[in-house]
């Protein structure tokens, strides 16, 4: 039976492209077929797996320009049961799609807030009069483009093909080195790999409360490749810390580090160890 | 002559309320009058001060539920010359504004992305069929509400009064303890105070690259009240770190810490020492 992979839809989003790459990889590695199930938000995508409506989920985690996708981090912490199977790094080339014959006619540009932010300078330079409006995905507005030449959308070249829409400019991202890291998640234990992701809260807000957990890894020469703080949502000034480490949680050194870490944190959640696939 | 305070507009935004509090505080402390100058984005608000078009700026820095306002962090790092004069913590009570007579009729809810995110569960529960659409501010859509009873906006009670719009529900934020911290910035040196904000990049991505800078403060018992990472925008996996410390940069212990920190960071930017005002 085919595996179901939940992802942020509708069809044509960058997350769908990442989900297709996962589907190809699964077929190659395990021989298993998979089908894609688009969901309207990142929260609903992850909940589909937590509630066993879908077996796997692909969500964006971090972009090289705009940083963390906070919706993914907050849901990972809350849902608790999802484990990372693989990370995928995908280059992002944004395109301006519109039926406008004259750029001057464009009054509104729709896209996902991250895509709008990644093309902010380009929009200021080339479409200073157009109003950016954020939607849930890069493809949500595409259905309206045919009927209205005063609107445009920032989306992928694949989405333009899929919807038979003209590309007015591409790439329009402000920084050429624009990549997004996606995660493939499921309820099964992680396979292990070169990276480990975890998150924790620290009890007391006192000098060194964050240094101590970080020292646990530094003294074992385990490299911290990323740290991100998120509010606990209890009170201003209380944080959760999301950490990526360049080591497998099953290694002896990591095992002892994780035991020590549990003693110095209030709540500790380990999302798994996995390898990174570049697309 | 009156001082000009740039802030995110149009009138009725939470940032305007924070700017009004700053204006009152300035009058009380210094006897100086100030006028408010609304700008369409956080970037343009901060640039107005950097280019001396306005003398001060009020921008949101961090919300207790949704976390950092990344636009503010990225602009502070880039503009480089702005110094923090004061922080303000303001409770946030979101209201649903609409001319709809029946909630079932509401098809679209407009607001700033942070406000939409802070009311996400409420929207899922009470307006599951309405589409959330993000705009540049909480007040941008209010002008359209009179003409269209199928749309609603999430904004403040003050904005409802200002625009003579009915409040359908308030508060609608998912977490009752919802506060935002704002910064008052200008080009003059910081006045000093209980908190210091700074940011740095670290040269090498190696074990302990972040621990060393944090240890500099921990070993002097200087509490780190916040750490936030932002991408350098050079390549995926390279970060800047924004740090808030509970100490005045002019103190002897902080002075020696900052000298040591400069030796262990690639670029170090100190945004100033200041006190926090609760509204």
UniProtKB/TrEMBL annotation, chains A, B:
EC assignment: 4.2.1.51
Catalysed reactions, as listed in the record: prephenate + H(+) = 3-phenylpyruvate + CO2 + H2O
Keyword field contains Lyase: yes
GO biological process: L-phenylalanine biosynthetic process
Gene Ontology cellular component list: cytoplasm
Keyword set, alphabetical order: Amino-acid biosynthesis, Aromatic amino acid biosynthesis, Lyase, Phenylalanine biosynthesis
Gene3D superfamilies recorded: 3.30.70.260, Periplasmic binding protein-like II
Top EC class for this record: lyase
Taxonomy, superkingdom: Bacteria
Domain Prephenate dehydratase: 4-187
CDD domains attached to this UniProt entry: ACT_CM-PDT, PBP2_PDT_1
Pathway(s) per entry: Amino-acid biosynthesis; L-phenylalanine biosynthesis; phenylpyruvate from prephenate: step 1/1
The UniProt record lists the keyword Disulfide bond: no
GO molecular-function terms, A-Z: prephenate dehydratase activity
Residue ranges of domain ACT in the record: 198-273
PROSITE patterns, A to Z: ACT, PREPHENATE_DEHYDR_2, PREPHENATE_DEHYDR_3
InterPro entries: ACT-like_dom_sf, ACT_dom, Preph_deHydtase, Preph_deHydtase_CS
PANTHER family from the UniProt entry: PREPHENATE DEHYDRATASE P PROTEIN, PREPHENATE DEHYDRATASE-RELATED
Record's protein name: Prephenate dehydratase
Lineage of source species: Bacteria, Bacillati, Cyanobacteriota, Cyanophyceae, Leptolyngbyales
